């Protein structure tokens, strides 16, 4: 499996590691509770144009059945969007979440059943010990479809707010659907350890370049002149 290793955190903690490969097979090799937070943005199953994935509803259900048990096994805390709100029924019937987090995006142009989609639920399994977080984040979706060559990038502030609330400084964040690298960039900005994997080499290279930029800036800013 090909591996990209970003530079050391200037604070001296472990490397940020990015991998190319099948995330389910990768997760099966990870020890139980080996990461503190699994924060990710899986495919939505709504026919978005990913580089290597056929984003159909059938593929989404199959992926979730493989992904959720492994996610719960390897991470103390798992957080990811529910995708379509109507799929909450499926989650509660098959893999009941421990809680939901509200991502309030504010006024958007996206349609919902009642008119406009101003918020999005996120699934939560488990929690880290001695970490108490609010079940609400508020940040606009500032990214557009196609940014960083990805059909559905998330904004940095989305990931930063969740990581800040759900982890402490010495904890490890894992994103098995690395995509454009948003979670990795946010984790690096906050000084967390980070592991990421994606089946698409192009997405991993994009993530590597974005995270390397954060590493370089952090190292530069840490030097006292």
Describe the secondary structure blueprint for this structure.
Elements lengths: L2 E3 L11 E4 L2 H6 L6 E5 L17 H18 E7 L6 H7 L4 E6 L14 E8 L9 E3 L17 H11 L5 E4 L6 H8 L3 E6 L2 H22 L3
Helix pairs in contact: 4-5, 5-6
Concise summary:
The protein has helices spanning about 25-30, 55-75, 90-95, 155-165, 180-190, 200-220, and strands at about 5, 15-20, 35-40, 75-80, 100-105, 120-125, 135-140, 170-175, 195-200. The protein is α/β, with parallel strands linked by helices.
From the N-terminal CA to the C-terminal CA, the straight-line distance is 41 Å
CATH class categorisation: Alpha Beta
Helix content class: 25-40%
Instruction: Kindly identify the CATH topology.
Output: Rossmann fold
> Cα-atom Rg, whole angstroms?
17 Å
Structural class: alpha/beta
Total separate domains: 1
Which CATH-level-2 architecture? Answer: 3-Layer(aba) Sandwich
**CATH superfamily assignment?**
Vaccinia Virus protein VP39
Major sheet: 9 strands, mixed
Key traits:
225 residues, disordered C terminus, alpha/beta, Rossmann fold, 6 helices, single chain
Q: Describe it for me?
A:
- The chain has 225 residues and is α/β, with parallel strands linked by helices.
- The protein has one domain (15-70, 79-211): Rossmann fold (3-Layer(aba) Sandwich), CATH 3.40.50.150.
- Helix content is 32%, strand content 20%.
- It contains 6 helices and 9 strands; from the N terminus they run ββαβαβαβββαβαβα.
- It has helices spanning 23-28, 57-74, 88-94, 156-166, 182-189, 201-222; strands at 3-5, 17-20, 35-39, 75-81, 99-104, 119-126, 136-138, 172-175, 193-198.
- The protein has a 9-stranded mixed sheet.
- Mean pLDDT is 85; it is low at 9-14 and 220-225.
